[in-house]
Amino acid sequence: MNAPSQEPPITAERQRAIVAELRTVLPPHCLLSSEEDTRPYECDGLTAFRQLPLAVALPENEEQVVAVLKACRKLQVPIVPRGAGTGLSGGAMPVAEGIVLSTAKMSRIVAIDAHARTATVQPGVRNLAISEAAASHQLYYAPDPSSQIACTIGGNIAENAGGVHCLKYGLTLHNVLRVRMVTADGDVVELGSTAPDAAGLDLLAVFIGSEGMLGVVTEATVKLTPKPSLARVVMASFDDVVRGADAVADVISAGMIPAGLEMMDRTSARMVEPFVCAGYDTDAAAILLCESDGLPEEVEEEISRMRAVLERSGATAIAVSRDEAERMRFWSGRKNAFPAAGRISPDYYCMDGTIPRRKLAEVLTGIEALAQQYQLRCANVFHAGDGNLHPLILFDANQPGEFERAEKFGEAILSLCVAAGGTITGEHGVGVEKLDSMCEQFTVEEIAAFIAVKRAFDPAQQLNPNKAIPTLDRCAQYGKRKVDGGRFRFAQYARHYG
Ligand SMILES: Cc1cc2nc3c(=O)[nH]c(=O)nc-3n(C[C@H](O)[C@H](O)[C@H](O)COP(=O)(O)OP(=O)(O)OC[C@H]3O[C@@H](n4cnc5c(N)ncnc54)[C@H](O)[C@@H]3O)c2cc1C
């Protein structure tokens, strides 16, 4: 978690000029500029970092988005796109000299095409609202971040969001067919297509996960998936985290792809059980939730296979949901883990890294050792099937030094992920939070390639500047700081920067 660099002070005159220009392209109810009105936009879900924007534009349609971007281009004003602000890496945090462009007023479902199994939606549509709109056709939108009640499809596209069901049904990237977006110049561009294939370079894949730095999504067409006729979940307890972690790999290597495969450690189960009363085994060192969906016969067969594998892997107790209400109850704790953290700790810091599944046990053991080292509690509740970890570091910001320790602990977890052959983010993006970790993950040459892509879309660096991609200077500084056992750990940076 690294604070962005200090920006030069903004003069009131500059702010007035920007607001005046925006007033010429937006109706009064679509522009906020008083401190009282812009304060709610000062941060996203990573609340440790805050910055008031100069103004907040709330366009109601694509034409207004174009007009805002053109006005900002004219005055060279940075723009931070924003959906629901549930991001956890500071991606939607404003920049001091810029404005926020919120898609809150663009929340219309444009069309549900049951025949093509697609939904075309505006960017501010909530993730869950797509499934709700498609429910009458027995269809739903599969990627289901735990924040799905609030987060928007625009934010999901920018972060390539994942969720419990992404192991079987794919991430946002695999479920978005087409994106309409506005470039920093104010040009409208369509990426992808509603046809099964699109000609030309696959810029849609480049765009998804680009954290609001390449364009502003104004419309998206997403795939809808038939609702399975039955879903059941197996809940298995383990008396040892390593055995639980190894069971995850055992399930997958037995040839099954569960509809969800999630893990909670004891701290997490004890944290959520009083909150949701799901019936979790709070004595277990780890709990696995393993879901099967499909036709009833398929589900019955797969559930008994899952059961057999989990028993062989050392499960100490197994329960299978008997009906839909019980299935939802089993999942309720997993879905509410983050809010439940607030019950046992004044503050928490949610990390996000991904590792190869076979390394789960090793990395979880490493996190436990780091918790001892940093003298902080850590709850692990995560998308185990995807190898996507979400360690929740529990701390109290009012205790001197705890926030700094939590930061260092988090950075050390990401280093563990990289060392295990994984990545520093799974689904929460880089934002402002993981800029230094990007320097650890990628070589200077790779980062230079990312910068070149950013420049190709946004030469003036106006869209969400200083997010997601570190500058080469920053990496050089980071490399210099990371002296490891007297050996310069990032020798490649020395080549460029001495
Ligand atoms: C309790 C909780 C649980 C969560 N669980 C999950 C989870 O299971 N899986 C997961 O992946 N994430 C999860 N998240 C993180 C977050 O919800 C996702 O990253 C989500 O995709 C963010 O959507 P948003 O609408 O809130 O976007 P914001 O936070 O507003 O923005 C996120 C990024 O998207 C950009 N952006 C937003 N709208 C647009 C647009 N129209 N055009 C271009 N760029 C845009 C912003 O600039 C920013 O960089 C969770 C967060 C919370 C608080």
TrEMBL record:
Cofactor(s) required for function per UniProt: FAD
Keyword Isomerase applies: no
Classification via PANTHER family: GLYCOLATE OXIDASE SUBUNIT GLCD
Lineage, uppermost ranks: Bacteria, Pseudomonadati, Pseudomonadota, Betaproteobacteria, Burkholderiales
Domain of life of the organism encoding this protein: Bacteria
GO molecular function: FAD binding; oxidoreductase activity
Species per Swiss-Prot/TrEMBL record: Pseudoduganella ginsengisoli
Cited InterPro entries: FAD-bd_oxidored_4_C, FAD-bd_PCMH, FAD-bd_PCMH-like_sf, FAD-bd_PCMH_sub2, FAD-linked_Oxase-like_C, FAD-linked_OxidoTrans_Type4, Oxid_FAD_bind_N, Vanillyl_alc_oxidase_C-sub2
Annotated keywords: FAD, Flavoprotein, Oxidoreductase
Keyword Oxidoreductase listed: yes
Record's protein name: FAD-binding protein
Domain FAD-binding PCMH-type residue range list: 49-227
